[in-house]
Design a protein that fits this description.
Elements lengths: L2 E6 L3 E6 L17 E4 L20 H13 L3 E4 L12 H16 L6 E5 L12 H17 L4 E3 L3 H6 L3 H13 L5 E6 L16 H14 L4 E7 L3 H8 L7 E4 L5 H6 L7 E4 L1 H4 L1 H12 L3 H8 L2 H8 L7 H11 L18 H13 L6 H14 L5
Parallel strand pairs: 3-4, 3-10, 4-5, 5-6, 6-7, 7-8, 8-9, 9-10
Antiparallel strand pairs: 1-2
Length: 387
Amino acid sequence: MPTLDLPVAGGKLERYATRPPRAFPRTGGKFDRVAFAAAHVVADPLADIDPWLGVAVDWDKTIAYRRHLWRLGLGVAEAMDTAQRGMGLDWPMSLELIRRGIEAAKGIPGAAIACGAGTDHLAPGPGVTVDRVIAAYEEQCAAIEKLGGRIILMASRALAAAARSPEDYARVYGRVLGQLKQPAILHWLGEMFDPALEGYWGHKDHLKAMEVCLGVIEASRAKVDGIKISLLDKDKEVVMRRRLPRGVRMYTGDDFNYAELIEGDDVGYSDALLGIFDSIAPAASAALGRLAAGDSKSFHDILAPTVPLSRHIFKAPTRFYKTGVVFMAYLNGHQDHFVMVGGQQSARSLLHLAELFRLADQAGLLADPDLAAARMRSVLATHGVVN
């Protein structure tokens, strides 16, 4: 097994020996939980653009990764936060991504895809009214539904800035949901993922905000398939899960505590819509298969080693987690480079990436340790560390 010198705190290097990868059994997607992976995009490193201002996507590699997720039985949550929505990927490129994703899904039996609709083409500002936020949501929802897509209604920075009361949120969501062709998944994205969303639903206190959100769901329950909450707080998720109307799903967005939330308790469980499932897809698929077979022990045995990796990838500042997600794809050979839309590969330190390598290896998630070690050495070399 390959060994290499990885940086540790204090400016030192420490010898690390990789382990054999874990063999994750294929399940054929026979799950008893709905499971979506929020998928990343692969940048085009050869495009002649200013990477901080322009966007260039390698469409072939990007769609190939979605096929990888579908083969594992996972659904794809398209054009979401993990795809750098609002952090490099603008609405026109998001719509093109959605179009290509929907088209690719048609050729794969059972492939599930749901697509993010938001207001990111409407910049928050003093002149932005609630009515303009509604119009922006309507524009994106109509464009996605025209392509045959199913909606994930994303949180809106413009609404967070324009709303003056919880009633404004109720009006916006009631209006938008009422027009949809099929039930949507709502996404409550916490301020740890996007500071501009602090105070969403009209309250900084999450429990007070939850009351507003539950009211929105109850008022439009026929148009709500479920809600994903991304607050990284398992207790709040369980409280809300137990209060959802019958038939409305809780999709965990908790990348810290997903295993226990998916397994659930005597009262209920969470389905999954997770960014970390992009990085741990083989393990997630295998674990969900064992859970469906009634083998809770193996479910936790597979997922437990992935949790330290996930908590590291999503550590504060959490919004930079996409760097770790793309780095994992690079280490595992799903893309030929470690370049991101918006130059976001620079958002995490070399020490962070080195620890990610260790944790991924310890979880058995480096499918080809020789390839992963070679790519880690390449990244080290660009930082002046020669192995």
